[in-house]
Design brief:
Layout: H1 9-24, E1 27-28, E2 35-41, E3 44-47, E4 53-55, H2 64-78, H3 83-100
Antiparallel strand pairs: 1-2, 2-3, 3-4
């Protein structure tokens, strides 16, 4: 990406600076709780204190989808989710899996 040229416009420059700040920032380590996690490469993060490596987002340690899934897992562990809600989620997952399965092609009818 071209850095700070007029051709990109203000919206592109704002998006670029937001991404760069997220990439260069330090994050809190889930293992040792110190603010020493830095980005190594795309999706790879390493704690400089304890040496733990993590997989995460390309520009930030955890993506919004990742944070949502972590919250749901914590609620499941606590038992905070109702049984009906869990059954509803299971039904949605099964429905999505059946829709994703490849359908057998219909045989061509020769006349």
């Amino acid at each position: 990406m071209v850095r700070f040229h007029v051709r990109g416009g203000p919206n592109l420059r704002k998006a670029y600076t937001k991404i760069q700040k997220a990439k260069k920032a330090r994050y809190i380590c889930p293992a040792c709780s110190k603010k020493s996690v830095r980005r190594e490469s795309v999706g790879m993060w390493k704690c400089r204190s304890c040496g733990s490596k993590f997989a995460g987002g390309a520009y930030e340690l955890s993506t919004p989808t990742g944070r949502l899934s972590q919250r749901l897992l914590l609620e499941l562990k606590k038992g905070a989710l109702s049984k009906e809600y869990i059954e509803k989620l299971e039904a949605e997952i099964e429905k999505a899996e059946t829709e994703a399965e490849p359908q057998a092609p219909e045989e061509a009818k020769s006349e």
